[in-house]
């Protein structure tokens, strides 16, 4: 078995309390074959980029690198989160292109490659994650690295015409052809990537999942929808009443049902649209007035980017507006919380909820949708209201699928979910639970790594 090298912008260090499902899956893979996890240390250095930190635990080596303030601003806040993130989420209107941040992005990828090239052996398998590192394979090949290189994009891949809106897009997206295997969340993302290679790279789709570049070089691409540790989360949820904050939430609800949303404060998650739809629900369904409390957990994210700060302000005002117009002395329709909760607590919150609201405008997968399903009580499960624009919608066919831009449609789905009889909820839940247990986070990483091992066959 080859050694595994994982590369990602954020590294889930062994002592961190915030490590989620992805960290668990990659940890398991790294432990199996022994391996190395490389990425940004999360630290912004006073001087230059490049100071390395090395640590090991349970057979895994962790190597992280500090970034200078200038590189952090250019690579992370700049090109990754002000240019690529909106572009990849179909938001050309928010794309802020700047040649300086693009150069910083390329520079940090080159710096990562410089250090990695000294670590990687020819028989290693290297798995690189996400939009921060699109050109890393190209930089590694330039430095003579011959190991198998795989890439997984956690966010959507938009249509070729949107990508073409980015000046010099070939430099960033053409570089994907340097990988042996490129993985996407859904078949639609894969199809749009294949279109891009045909239309803008002069490449060919030889066979499903097999692409040929103009110069004759072949590489593979496929869909690998990321999963969660469904059984593990289900067990956590079953024990969550031991957690004081879960019990407090339950007693605060009284006899009212709970609707829950859990999202980073990000414009891709469609939070203002969701608040609008909830307000429409209150207006259109007066018979259900006072029967439902909506809890929105929204940890602050990427505060260094102006559009994220503006969103935070907008939502604070919106929550106040809805409560001002609809609350009773003993009922607040919207509870809006900017804190981050550990998984154990979140699973308890999910289990208390009659309705899960997952309504992003675009989302690579959306793990919250799957976590909500895993956490339900099989005897009395809640219903999931899910956007057709989340990658998860391809698998979770038992959800009430909605278009997040249609506030009346979302409002009516909330009402339907609230009234849904338990038999119908059980039937819908069972089909979703079966799927997320069958293709869980471990099946996902084994599937990807197996394909990468054989990508050159
Ligand atoms: O690292 P941050 O800038 O704080 O952002 C957090 C992560 O957000 C994104 O998550 C994506 O990956 C999920 C798992 O595959 C997927 O379900 C979701 O739809 C995506 O948005 C981002 O892609 C990660 O790199 C960030 O670390
Ligand atoms: O207070 C919180 C809010 C979110 N999450 C986790 O953050 C992840 C969010 O992943 P998702 O795919 O839904 O969206 P992303 O934020 O990655 O775009 C999920 O595992 C959530 O359980 C968490 O642990 N605590």
List keywords for this structure.
457 residues, alpha/beta, 2 domains, 6-stranded parallel sheet, 19% strand, binds ligand L263DTV3, glycosyltransferase, Glyco_trans_20
Task: Describe the structure in your own words.
By secondary structure, the protein is of the alpha/beta class. The chain has two domains: 4-227 and 441-453, 3-Layer(aba) Sandwich (Rossmann fold); 230-438, Rossmann fold (3-Layer(aba) Sandwich), CATH 3.40.50.2000. Helix content is 44%, strand content 19%. It contains 16 helices and 16 strands. The strands form two sheets. The protein has a ten-stranded mixed sheet, with helices on both faces. Strands 13-12-11-14-15-16 form a six-stranded parallel sheet, with helices on both faces. Helix 1 (21-33) crosses helix 16 and helix 10 (271-284) crosses helix 14 (407-419). The two termini are 16 Å apart. The model has no long low-confidence stretch (mean pLDDT 96). Bound molecules: ligand L263DTV3 and uridine-5'-diphosphate. The site of uridine-5'-diphosphate has 15 residues, from helix 12 and helix 13. Uridine-5'-diphosphate binds next to helix 12 and helix 13. One of its GO terms (biological process) is trehalose biosynthetic process. It is an enzyme of class 2 (transferase). It catalyses: D-glucose 6-phosphate + UDP-alpha-D-glucose = alpha,alpha-trehalose 6-phosphate + UDP + H(+). Pfam families: Glyco_transf_20 (PF00982). Keywords: Glycosyltransferase, Transferase.
List the helices and strands and how they pair.
Blueprint: E1 4-10, H1 21-33, E2 35-45, E3 52-57, E4 60-68, H2 69-88, H3 99-119, E5 125-129, H4 136-142, E6 148-152, H5 160-163, H6 169-173, E7 181-184, H7 187-201, E8 204-207, E9 210-212, E10 218-223, H8 230-238, H9 244-253, E11 257-262, H10 271-284, E12 292-297, H11 306-326, E13 334-337, H12 343-352, E14 355-358, H13 367-374, E15 383-387, E16 400-402, H14 407-419, H15 422-438, H16 441-453
Parallel strand pairs: 1-2, 1-5, 2-4, 5-6, 6-7, 7-10, 11-12, 11-14, 12-13, 14-15, 15-16
Antiparallel strand pairs: 3-4, 8-9, 9-10
Bound molecules: the ligand O=P(O)(O)OC[C@H]1O[C@H](O[C@H]2O[C@H](CO)[C@@H](O)[C@H](O)[C@H]2O)[C@H](O)[C@@H](O)[C@@H]1O and uridine-5'-diphosphate.
